[in-house]
Design goal:
Number of domains: 1
Distance between the termini: 48 Å
Helix content: 40-55%
Largest sheet: 6 strands, mixed
Number of strands: 6
Strand content: 5-15%
Strand order of the largest sheet: 4-3-5-2-1-6
Shape: globular
Number of helices: 14
Radius of gyration: 19 Å
Order of helices and strands: HHEEHEHHHHEHHHHHHEHE
Length: 301
């Protein structure tokens, strides 16, 4: 049984519940916004305070997004909160999930499931991503889409290394901060694997046919994140669920769980620095809106 999944892919898999409609269109044109001002909130709980920063999970190295008030909030906070853990057991859990849910049955090749037209698109997409197509043949469509996408990202020098998640995780470790997570690896991957139920081989084929348009779509995502405009971002995230109402409901329920977890943390007289994907923070089902609805004071957009 072959499982060729690099660390970049594992990090992306375990830090992204955007839904595959966005993940499978995640490739960045190198000329994206050089200076970003991501949305930032301060949540006042019954006793504690949480500083919440919206992130994206892949960026080129030339994007500058840090600013003094965010760095100051990080310094003040004793506990950093992320989406999922990055310890060895978490990596092992991701690998186990992929072996169980990400591979096709023995004797079945992804290439053979495609139409002749899609096979040509498949070869072209793999070439753009700098991949040998046989590396994907044992993978189910949801996993193949992500591996192909992350490989294309790497070709454009776009990785997790310059993201808020990675930057502040490294700072937390360096400063000896307490680390907490809001979710589990299995929960994140379960959401991503839904792609095969909702889109399947037809959705994968459609992604292949439009693969060259990925840089423009991701430019829009990065630019919107960088502008800090939560209304435009909410519309962008909402559009990714237009054909997946169940996914929208699951995503909203996910955010509700996170909001309750943060409320419980804020019952303690501590300061928390929270870094999660911007998709979880915008719109009426985003975490800040849910916290406000529960009566907490939330400063920010």
């Amino acid at each position: 049984m072959r499982v060729f999944i690099g660390n970049n892919v594992l990090r992306f898999l375990r830090a992204s519940t955007f839904g595959l409609a966005i993940i499978a269109t995640c490739s960045v044109h190198a000329a994206t916004v050089p200076t970003a001002h991501p949305a930032f909130w301060t949540v006042h709980g019954s006793s504690g305070t949480a500083f919440v920063l919206g992130s994206v999970h892949a960026l080129p190295p030339n994007v500058t997004w840090q600013r003094p008030e965010i760095d100051e909030a990080a310094r003040e906070s004793g506990t950093f909160v992320f989406e999922v853990s990055n310890d060895p057991e978490d990596v092992a859990e991701a690998t186990r999930f992929i072996r169980k849910r990400g591979l096709l049955p023995n004797g079945t090749a992804l290439h053979d499931l495609l139409t002749p037209v899609a096979q040509k698109d498949y070869a072209a997409a793999c070439a753009l991503a700098g991949m040998n197509a046989t590396a994907l043949d044992d993978k189910r469509p949801w996993l193949a889409a992500i591996v192909l996408t992350v490989s294309y990202l790497n070709q454009r020098n776009v990785t997790y290394l310059n993201t808020p998640d990675e930057t502040y995780l490294e700072e937390a470790k360096r400063r000896g901060k307490n680390l907490l997570t809001l979710d589990t690896t299995s929960g994140q991957l379960e959401f991503l694997a839904r792609f095969d139920e909702t889109m399947g081989i037809n959705g994968f084929s459609a992604m292949l046919g439009d693969f060259t348009g990925q840089p423009q779509r991701e430019d829009k995502l990065i630019e919107t994140w960088g502008s800090g405009d939560v209304n435009v971002m909410a519309a962008l995230i909402g559009s990714s669920f237009e054909n997946d109402p169940q996914g929208a409901r699951l995503f909203a329920a996910h955010n509700q769980v996170w909001a309750r977890e943060l409320e419980d943390l804020l019952k303690h007289d501590r300061k928390y620095f929270v870094v999660v994907g911007i998709a979880h923070l915008v719109g009426p089902t985003g975490v800040p809106a849910l916290l406000r609805a529960d009566g907490l004071k939330v400063d920010g957009p």
